[in-house]
Specification:
Layout lengths: L3 H22 L1 E3 H4 L2 H29 L19 H16 L4 H39 L20 H11 L1 H17 L7 E3 L1
Parallel strand pairs: 1-2
Helix pairs in contact: 1-5, 1-7, 3-4, 3-6, 3-7, 4-5, 4-7
Length: 202
């Protein structure tokens, strides 16, 4: 059975996204006006992180589409990290932060991720121990919990997946890109005078 952390994960993520969007609307970047190059660099860093995150999440989805909780997945990205989906999500969160062209947002979002997601991971792994027992314990000994260890990479020559489930996973993998797009639309509306700045942040 899923814990309260797992059940509330998507809802909390959506609430945070809305809160960040509102905060972004009423703030301006210190780097945008007088430090144009820095603003450009920050946005490019954000796009790179978001691109890696989206591709990584799609890669993870190839392996878990249709198998989650039914089979212990230990190949591909899951041979690098026991939680690669959350690792790539963290990169996406950092990317979204930098896409605001500030340092404040990536620091804030990373802190929120670091506070909440360890509880989600701990809860999920407790459930996997119940489902898979010794197989999961052996997996824990070989593969790190979060940050990838590339020396343990193991990729099969063939892999069976569920295309219908994977198709749904693609949309969730791309939401980081959609958020960056929304930020650019909001930034354009700011430049047109639709939103005023209550604060200038770094």
């Amino acid at each position: 059975m899923k814990s309260k952390f797992e059940k509330s994960r998507i809802l909390i993520s959506r609430i945070i996204v809305v809160a960040i969007l509102v905060f972004f609307i009423v703030t301006g970047s210190y780097w945008e006006e007088d430090h144009g190059m820095m603003s450009y660099v920050l946005f490019c860093i954000g796009v790179i992180f978001v691109g890696i995150a989206s591709l990584g999440r799609m890669w993870c989805s190839v392996y878990i589409a249709g198998y989650k909780d039914n089979k212990l997945i230990t190949k591909g990205p899951y041979s690098l990290s026991r939680n690669p989906l959350y690792f790539f999500s963290m990169l996406g969160v950092i990317g979204i932060g930098f896409a605001t062209e500030t340092f404040t947002f990536p620091l804030l979002l990373t802190a929120l991720f670091a506070i909440y997601y360890p509880f989600v991971i701990k809860s999920e792994e407790a459930r996997l121990r119940t489902y898979f027992g010794n197989d999961f314990e052996d997996y824990v000994k070989k593969v790190p919990a979060f940050f990838p260890r590339f020396s343990s990479f193991d990729e099969p020559s063939q892999y069976m997946m569920n295309p219908a489930v994977y198709r749904n996973h693609i949309f969730s993998a791309l939401w980081f890109i959609w958020i960056v797009g929304i930020f650019k639309v909001v930034e354009g509306l700011k430049e047109l005078g639709f939103f005023g700045h209550l604060w200038i942040i770094y």
